[in-house]
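Model: Ready when you are.
Researcher: Fold this.
Model:
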Amino acid sequence: MGRSILSVALALASVTAFADVYVLVDREQVQLNESFTLVLIADEDEQGEPSVAGLERDFEVLSQSQSSSMSIVNGRRETSRRWTFNLVPRALGTFEIPALSVGGVSSDPRTITVTEPVVAPAGDPDVFLEVSLDRTESWVQAQVIYTLKIYRAVSIRQPQLDAMRIEGGEVLVERLGEDRRYEAVIDGRAHEVLERSYALFPQESGAYTIAPAVYRGSLYSRGRISAPQEFRSEALGLFVEPAVPPPSTFPNAVWLPATDLSISATMEPADGMLNEGDPANIVVNTLVRGLAANQLPEFELNLDPALRVYPDKPDYVSRAQPNGVVARRQQSFAIIAGKGGVYDLPTLSIPWFDVDLGDWRLASTPLGTLRAAGQVVGNAPVPEVLDVEPAIEATPSEAPGTSQLDLDRATKLRLFRLKVTNFVLLGLWLATLYVMWRQPLTRRRQRKKNRREAEQNATYHDARKARRIAMQAAQNNDAPGTREAILLWANETLGASAGRGLTAFARHLNEDDAAIVLELDRALYGRARQTWDGAAMVGVLRRLDRPGALTAQKSAVALPPLFPS
């Protein structure tokens, strides 16, 4: 892989949650005449100062500063120290930032790629713009990164950047992080550079044109302010291919175009050995670059009938980094064995389309093996009860007036009482275990229910307004207007779990309603455009005219085929 999935995991982690010493760079690709920022972060326990001798071989150190920060995570105080270096590469090529040490602990090396420097336009203007795409050919719904750089050799008063304009079809645009500022020396003249990046997700195949970026402002130089001026970049072209059909090995795969995707799973206990009645906890992490977390499909565990699985609600994290959208989907499962035995758990897999290779790939991870000891009745263990006869102080011949029959009856009575006592104690023990296991689960569910109800009440009025607009558009057979209003309604009602399009929204509906929603999607984006009748969609919207009605329904429909006939 060109970019390791490990970088995705590191990008999703908080910078305060490092192990000991960690390095961050604001850009992994720079031009020869540009500066970039490197930040070295160390735990407070690591004493000493870092050595920059290894840096100075390939980079010029323009400046260096030091700071400290403190945070409280789960009631625990964490303090770190940071060293910030402003660096300029000395030559073209790919260079390794060596491991930097603080207090005997070293960071991991990082790689920086240095490209040809930018050339100023003719006339050496005070301000000029440069735009670029990370790829000029892509696939539908795949991420394309658009980068804008504004070079300024003088100060700008009242700067203004026009909104991006894209022609050729629908494109979802997401800004990637904050603006980055650095310096570049062009033809011996210093320029301040403002860099801004966007992730583009084209929703239709075909040719797109990104109009020139327009930047306006008044130049301030030598104590004088000019009249407002306008600066333009060049226009860019982008060609988007339709979705590629999946191979015969997984013909029903969902279209997931990404630059990197991996799955990992951890089990507790790690060796899979369970005591009687104890649950095994499995956490599955899916890391992806170039997609939002809620676009990833859910896992369904097909287990032995003797195993009971209790899935937790997935946790989604998506972040817009300068080099693209990175996301993580985490889901936990509790598995309890109904009886002792050895159980081989399945391998989890996700087919995805690698946009760098232009081909389908399969990410997978095995869950391992469970070994449950003992025999289990129902869902709980039953400890073995030993029939131990108590010692009898007198034999029949030594107990005058007591017959052998009376002694046998007394012994059996004592054994019966002992067994009853054992079973009563066992029942109390099981009841205590159940209450201890159930209480945290009940509290978590109640907290989730309270949050969900509060969010639903807060968005109720906006959702009703969006639903009314959707119904009116459907009655007028306005397919684009209906789609826009439905997605607005779903976003108000479901939040992040609504997904990016109608396909994700349809997963929350029953089979009949989902088919109607997908028919609208095919009418808009199918290979052959269709005439759409919104009467059936009006019925769907009427059935969802209640706060919480959508989330109360269970998805009873599988994902639609990627290429409907």
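Researcher: Now this one.
Model:
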Amino acid sequence: MKKLTNTLFLICATLLAFAQVDNNLSTKFKSAQAGRMRLDSIHYEPYNPTTLEFKLSSKQEFIYDTNGNEIEKRYYGLTNSGWDLSRKEVYEYDSNNNLITEIYYPSKNADGSLRPSSKFEYAFDDAGNKTLDAEYFWYPDLNSWAGIEKVEYEYDLYGNKIFEKLYGWSISSNDWWGVMYLEDNYDSSGVQTLESRYNFDQVGKVWHGDYKNIKNVDSNGNVTEEYMYIWNFVIDDWEFLAGFNHVYETINNQKVEFIQNWNSTDSTWHNSRKVEIIAQADTLLITINWKASGGGWQGISKSEIGYDSFGNEILNISYNWDTDSSDWIGYQKSEYAFDAKGNKLLEAHYRWSVDLNIWVGDGSKYEFEFNSNGNQVLLIYYSWLNDSNNWILSQKLVDVYDDNDNHIAIERYNWDRNLGEWIMIWKRPQYFNSQNYLIGWEEFTWETDSNRWKGNDKYEFEPDENGNMVVGIDYNWDKTTCDWIESSKVETQLNLAYSYEDLILPTSPLAFFSIFSPWYYQRLNSYRNMVTQLVGYNWNKDINDWQPDGIHKFFYSGDVNNNIIQLDETEMLVYPNPASDFITIGNISHSTHFQLFSVTGKLVLSKILESSEDVSVQGLKPGMYFYRLETKNQQQKGKLVIQ
């Protein structure tokens, strides 16, 4: 399959509108909601290689509420008679901006109207907990919605879920009917004291219990009593099933918990199990489980957990009770090691071999190394060799970083037991520019048969000064020439006057590329500024050059103003306006980044100011420009005319 088929690419023309501000004074704000630009529509223009033209074919439109939430998404196709609405999505939000309704219209009825297919409803309490989750599908025969599943929730004051009710849909009554519900309870410390379930009897149209567990807890959070019930359909009520009494004692500085079962015959508690917890100087915790047997105690399980001086778990051993020897016998063991920064240096797992009477490796053993910046630079895998009963080298993963902490290479090796050396089997060099932005990477696999490297993927990126990808090229490997050949390319245009945080965008992530495209996951949130154009190309072998594939054009407008919090800052001034040779930037009291943009969003001037200063604008073409002043706590925007 070709790596790129009918690739959808996004692109946008010039900026349509900027936020309205005074010529001399700029809006000051903390909230990013002030002056944000809305993405209103995206137009797609596929390329026709026959006519050598881009032709508009489809568009998406986005509608928002006053809080910037997307409330509708519309999809159009262009026909001879104009725009044809082919599908849409509708969203609704509550007063806290929680999404409470989603409705999807993916197709049309015979009369041309849009037909819904699915609907989702949600509700939330004042604390933000979800109290409703319902799903519907459109039933064309009834011309109405039919439910699929609905769940209702309730919570206590601490956010613990104490009620959950599940509904199914009744076709006969065309309404929801209860299936089952759960009732739980928690004390003020978060310990669960009630767990119960009820089922609905459709024949008798009544609710019946299923199971119920009740726990009593002391002031220390210890469970003191447990009672278990099941539903008795003969008496139509709860029936006692079992009870447990927990008694806590301290014996020889050891915490001991006795668990007693209720004996309904003599109506007394009888010892059932015993749990001993032994702590040794915060470095070892031993837990032993016993069961009552013949007037004494017989072991069930035992665990030993060791800790280093930083509290990291470095040892975990599990034991089972051996009835033949009346002693503990090892079952599983895990070992760990950490450095002073908490980085894991060792992880190894073992199981006890009854036949050999020793610990043997179970799975893998790992050793790690880190550099001074905390980056993992080495991971070694070991496997267990049964013949010699020891760990042997298996694989290693090497990560390489430069002096600027850029991740410049990843390498994978296999250990060759015959040669007694590491053999590299996979590598991925990664390249960065002087600004430490990623500009490309290659991935290779070693082919043993041909005794040479085979390329898997290669990407080259050209970032702008903010790290946005303005050009991206993807390559395929040519098996004949054993070299890279061009496959696809993306060219991006951006308006640097607006950062990503300055944008109002659709709620759902937009995919502008085909799922078969290597750029499928390149979304708007991959950029730090406003994307205005992304042009997609495929490499045409016949003409030995790039051939356009398609364009998406983005149209922004307006701003949503809400939650504006004015700053108690001195207003920064830009004057005169209009200007010819110089502008004065006044009232600068903090380190300020001044940027000037053309109407197409191109950065034409950038300067760091430490105080009020005259800035030369000589050499700039006459016309309209937009400026941005940004400090640590303040951002201002405005328009500037150069004469």
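Researcher: Key takeaway?
Model: The two ends are 56 Å apart (CA to CA).
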